[in-house]
Amino acid sequence: MSMVQSRVETGLLSERARNLAPSPTVAMDTRAKTLLAQGVDVVNLTAGEPDFPTVPVAAAAAHRAIDAGFTRYTASSGIVELRQEICAKFLRDNALAYSPDDVVVTPGAKYALYAAMQVLCDPGDEVLIPSPYWVSYPEQVKLAGAVPVFVPTREEDGFCVRAEVIGDYVTARTKMLLLNSPCNPTGSVVPRAELEAIGELVLAHGRMVVLSDEIYESLVYGAARHDSLAALDPALKAKTVTINGLSKAYAMTGWRVGYAAADRAIAQAMGNLLSQTTSGINSIAQKAAVAALRDGQADVQVMAEEFARRREYVLARLAGMPGVRCVPPDGAFYVFPNVSSAFGRTTPAGVRLTDIGTLGLQLLDEAGVATVPGDGFGVTDHIRISYAASLSTLERGCDRLEEFFRGLR
């Protein structure tokens, strides 16, 4: 009966739902957590989630909001106090001047991306997505009725997207370029000179807008520097929707606070979409976000310094694993090693590794380490490892990875 019922229900689904792929990062994280709940010893290196507690000033502000009864509907685009604080953040960190009417607060940065695509893209429009890419970009593009067009990057270039390559993929149907710097999954950061070249390309194509996902901007390492495309030129600012949020920098993943800044007409359209879908985000999280943006910078710096230490540790360990090579990431909290030398070899348990999916499964089943295979990010030779975990957890994970790769025959 259940199989028949399932088939009937599937037949009722829209084409949109049938074509929507689940998030592979969420799927691997869920699988790892399920195994852990069953008592299986798994080192989970999948999640893009800081292991730090939410910055204390945000948590305290949330308590105050509850005690004060601040628990009712707010404006769909976010309370004015929070949008003012976001404007102050843009001016302080990005040299960008916005007014609260140019800002929309969303339930997570992921929804800000979704909303921007919904109000900017028409069916048949093309959206350029540098590859490797975050897993949700293509699916969100398709949900907007648009067509994802993948722009390749090269491992030997540190996966940095190049303006001249982007230009090869621009057509009369190109509506949007999606930039993610620092990048998930590669950690690449677009240098300012390249960003300027990309800006010139965008301005030369009047129809093109840019969706700039800057959620990892606080996590850059060494000589790398984060620049916002919108800050390079007033004309670019008018054509750019800048996306950010509090999940990564302030360890507030579960609070679901994202935001976008854009030309006022775009921001208002996104606000209208929120009014008909989510009715905005919860009131308490907004008060927490105000406090985090205003007074949480010291905590952000502490976390960034710790992530830098973890990055160095993981890179050193990967360098000692046979057949594994890794471009050092300039930002975010992921490494994206090339593990293709393992293909065609056999694991200690006798499983032949035919592709990246098989490798990912065997790392979990045999080594007890959960990673994310690269096919979810548009490539087939890499895995993503998150170092948003304690050094002791990373040590256990790296020990197991090294043993696994050394045991291949």
Task: Provide tags for this entry.
single chain; 409 residues; alpha/beta; 12 strands
Structure in a nutshell:
44% of the residues lie in helices and 12% in strands. It contains 15 helices and 12 strands.
Structure characterization notes:
- The chain is an alpha/beta fold and 409 residues long.
- The protein is 44% helix and 12% strand.
- It contains 15 helices and twelve strands.
- It has helices spanning 2-12, 15-19, 24-37, 56-67, 80-94, 109-120, 136-143, 163-168, 192-204, 234-238, 264-277, 283-295, 297-319, 356-367, 391-406; strands at residues 43-44, 103-106, 126-131, 147-152, 174-180, 209-213, 240-245, 258-261, 334-335, 369-370, 372-373, 383-386.
- It has a seven-stranded mixed β-sheet with strand order 2-8-7-6-5-3-4, sandwiched between helices.
- Strand 3, helix 7 and strand 4 form a beta-alpha-beta unit.
- Helix 4 (56-67) packs antiparallel against helix 12, helix 6 (109-120) runs parallel beside helix 7 (136-143) and helix 13 (297-319) runs parallel beside helix 15.
Low-confidence runs: none
> From N to C, what is the helix and strand string?
HHHEHHEHEHEHEHEHEEHHHEHEEEH
Rg estimate, integer Å: 22 Å
**N-C termini distance:** 47 Å
Care to count the β-strands?
12
Category from helices, strands and their pairing: alpha/beta
Label the overall shape. Answer: globular
Helix content: 40-55%
Count of helices? Answer: 15
Average pLDDT: 95
Strand percentage: 5-15%
